[in-house]
Amino acid sequence: MLSNTTRTQIKKGSHKAVFDPQALYDIIDESLIAHIAIEEDRGPVVIPMLAWRVDNKVYIHGAKNSRLLRTLKTGHKTCLTFTLFDGWVLARSAFHHSAHYRSAVVFGQFENIKDNHEKDRVLNHFIEHIAPGRTEEVRLSNNKELTATQVLAIELNEASVKIGRHCVNDDKEDLDLQTWAGILPYRTVIGPLEPCDDLDSSINLPDYSRAYKHRWYK
Amino acid sequence: MLSNTTRTQIKKGSHKAVFDPQALYDIIDESLIAHIAIEEDRGPVVIPMLAWRVDNKVYIHGAKNSRLLRTLKTGHKTCLTFTLFDGWVLARSAFHHSAHYRSAVVFGQFENIKDNHEKDRVLNHFIEHIAPGRTEEVRLSNNKELTATQVLAIELNEASVKIGRHCVNDDKEDLDLQTWAGILPYRTVIGPLEPCDDLDSSINLPDYSRAYKHRWYK
C-alpha cells in the first residue's frame, strides 16, 4: 500500500486516488520525465529531468556541474511529479469537460550515488528500459565517463497516485442536447527509427518496440 | 525576445536556449499540462494542471476549494514548466545517449480572474484550442458554473525555452563500432473519438483533428 500521510492524502478528487504501488511503478516507467522542484531565494524552480526506476527507487543523472543536481545531492527536500495525459472528456456542456490522466507525486530527498559500479548498473537499467537489449550492442561507459556522471537516487517511500478515467458526466437536463459527447484519446507512439547520417548501411536495424505500447509504423 | 534575467539564463546546455517568444507559445500550446510548484512548510510540491494560453498569458482553472489554486491566487511566487518529449538519441556508446525534447520554464505570480465574462471568454478559448468549433456545439457555462470555477492567469514575462534536437554525437574512436545509432522518435497522436454509452446514435461524429499534428486513425 502506498503511504497515506497528511501530505500524500488526496483531498480534491479523492475517488481518483490509487493505493497500489504497482500503479505508481507503471506511471513512473511510462513517464520517462519527472518534474522536480527545488526552492530558491526567489521562489520554487521546476526542472524536467529524465527519470527511471529500479526496484523501489527512482534515479536521475546529469553532469556534475548541473545546478539542480548540486542542490539535490545535499539532501534538499524535493517533490517529483510524473504525468501521463490520456485524452479529453468532451461533455455536452462546457462546464463538464475534463481530462483522462495518470499522475504520481513523490516526496523525499535524493542521495548521491558515488560508487561507479552502482552508477553503471543503474544507468544500464535505464538503457535497457528504453531500448531492450541495447546494453549488449553499445560501448558501455568507462570509469572516466562514470566519474563525470552524477547519479542521484530517491526511495519511493512517500507518494500519491491519481488516475482520472471517468466517462462523460453531464447534467441530466443536458442529455437531450444534439451534441456529440465522448472521449478524444491521446496516445504516445514511437518510431520508425531514423539512422544518423554517418551510419554504416550494413548495420541491421534493431527493434526496441517491445518496450512500448504503440508504434507509429507497421 | 524572451527575457534573459539571471534566473532564466540557461547555463547548462546554453546552445539549446531559444529566445523567440513564438517558440515559447508553441511549446505551451502543444503541452496542455503545466507542472506548477508551490512551497509548503515541508518543502516544495509540484502539481500537474491543465494550462492554456491566450495572447501573452497562461491560464489554469479548477474548483474554488483546490489547495493549489487557493495558494496561487494570493500571489505566491511560482514556477510553471512545460515539457514535450520527442525521442531518444541512441548513440554507439552508453555515455552519449540523450533525448530530444522541448521545454519552457515560466516564473511569476498568478492573478485571480473575478469577472465571469472574462472567465467565460478564456475558458471558451481553451475548448476551441482542444476541439476547434466545439463552443458552437456545447451548452456554454451559466453564471452559477462560472462563479464556481476559479480561473487564474499568469503573464509570460519571465521565461526560458530549451530545445534539444541534435543528432548522435559519438566519440571519434567509437564511429567504427558495428552498433546501430540514430533517433527513436516519439509522437503524440489523437483519436479515434469514442462516443459515450448514452449518446444518441443520430448525432454526427465531429472532426477536431485539425488542431493536432498526428492522428491515430486514417
From TrEMBL, chains A, B:
<dbReference type="Pfam" id="PF12900">
    <property type="entry name" value="Pyridox_ox_2"/>
</dbReference>
<dbReference type="InterPro" id="IPR012349">
    <property type="entry name" value="Split_barrel_FMN-bd"/>
</dbReference>
<protein>
    <submittedName>
        <fullName>Pyridoxamine 5'-phosphate oxidase</fullName>
    </submittedName>
</protein>
<dbReference type="InterPro" id="IPR024747">
    <property type="entry name" value="Pyridox_Oxase-rel"/>
</dbReference>
